[in-house]
Amino acid sequence: MDSKSVRPQKHRMSLPGRTVDRQKRSWCGTLGRSAGLGVLLLVLMLVEGAGAQELPPDVARSIEHAAEEGQRYRRDFPPSALEFELNGNRWLQAATVTAIVERPEFTDAIMRRAVAADPEAAGPLVRHVNVSFPGYAPVIAAATGGTVEAPAPGVDSPAAWYGADTYLPLLADRPPGWPVLPKEGGADGYDDPLEGMNRVFFYFNGALDFLIFEPLARVYRFVMPDKAKPHVRNAFDNLSLPVVFANDLLQLEFAQAGETLARLLINSTVGVVGLFDPAATLGLEPHDTGFGETLYLYGVGDGFYLVLPLLGPAAVRDAVGAGVDGLLDPRSYLLTTETQLALYLAGGIVIRERELDSVDFLTENAEDPYVAVRAWIYQQRERDFDTNCLKRKALSCPDR
């Protein structure tokens, strides 16, 4: 993630006093207008007896079409359980809110049709509608037969406030890969029986990061031109291709292994040791994998959560995988120890620079950084596995 991919002004966590007041006034105004609309809808429903109304055909078609679009996208790009719980069917949510605003007298029928059109997405749908019309939960619950829980507005609200001067950006506004905090419902599926020891190493690593890696990453961000950063990342990605190639073979992905080998040869020569990516222009798209994913595809479970000094956090399976990847890396045999350490340090700085904004976001907003990092590591691996499993041919992904 380079500096242009994150807009600090949009994601800044601590807003100046005037901006906070302006945001609060805007939010209060929105609440007031929405609450007023909710009261109007309630009166219209009571007067018109909307529960017995038949939904107009054009509204019914728009809801059904939106539900089908969302379901089709879900089939083509299956979300993780966390993503679906948080986001649901965005197409259906937009169509439902639009229909209620345009035809408030049919709110009861609209909600019934929307829930019936995609029952799996009913929970996020009801939360989204509740946020759009604060104070309207009883009417929505009645419209859905009282079968769908409708919690109070949370992470989907126009603004989520956790203190007088802290603004938490919406999930939809965050760059891909940023953490979903536990207080927002971020899932953390790792067992952590060694939490006491892990916390000691976690804060030890944090001190090293604060003293060494973060300052170096900020210097690198300052001195390196934005246009050059992707090329530097390409070079380090190119160095990891032998490990990717070996794991492609272990995963029985022979066609993909051939593409990886071709990328390595082309980018190491024509691409000037990987600074450029001419292989991509030839249709050889990059991908990443490691022995941790190889173990996963052969059915090895996560294991418990582990934080290692200097190496950082991972599930036991992925920690073992990182060790095996080190053995598969030709640099372990071809380069001197000093050169290896220099390359790993430089690569770590490049990675740390890419994560500066997301880590700042986490540390400024997490109630417990240790728990938030543990959740984030789990979310990243789930996303990696979900994405790569869509492309599997030789091995099928295990059920989770």
How many separate helices? 19
Residue share in β-strands: under 5%
Ranges with pLDDT <50 over ≥5 residues?
1-31, 39-52, 147-167
Fraction of helical residues: 55-70%
SSE series: HHHHHHHHEEHHHHHHEEHHHHH
Overall structural domain count: 2
Return the average pLDDT rounded to an integer: 77
Number of distinct beta strands = 4
Structural class: mainly alpha
Main β-sheet, in a few words? 2 strands, antiparallel
Shape: globular
Question: Order of strands across the biggest sheet?
Answer: 1-2
Could you tell me how far the N terminus lies from the C terminus, measured between alpha carbons in angstroms? 30 Å
What is the alpha-carbon Rg in Å?
25 Å
Quick take:
With 400 residues, the chain is an all-alpha fold. The protein has helices spanning 8-11, 17-48, 57-76, 81-87, 90-102, 107-117, 122-132, 137-143, 195-223, 229-239, 241-250, 254-269, 278-281, 291-297, 316-328, 331-334, 337-354, 356-365, 369-389, and strands at residues 160-161, 167-168, 305-308, 312-315.
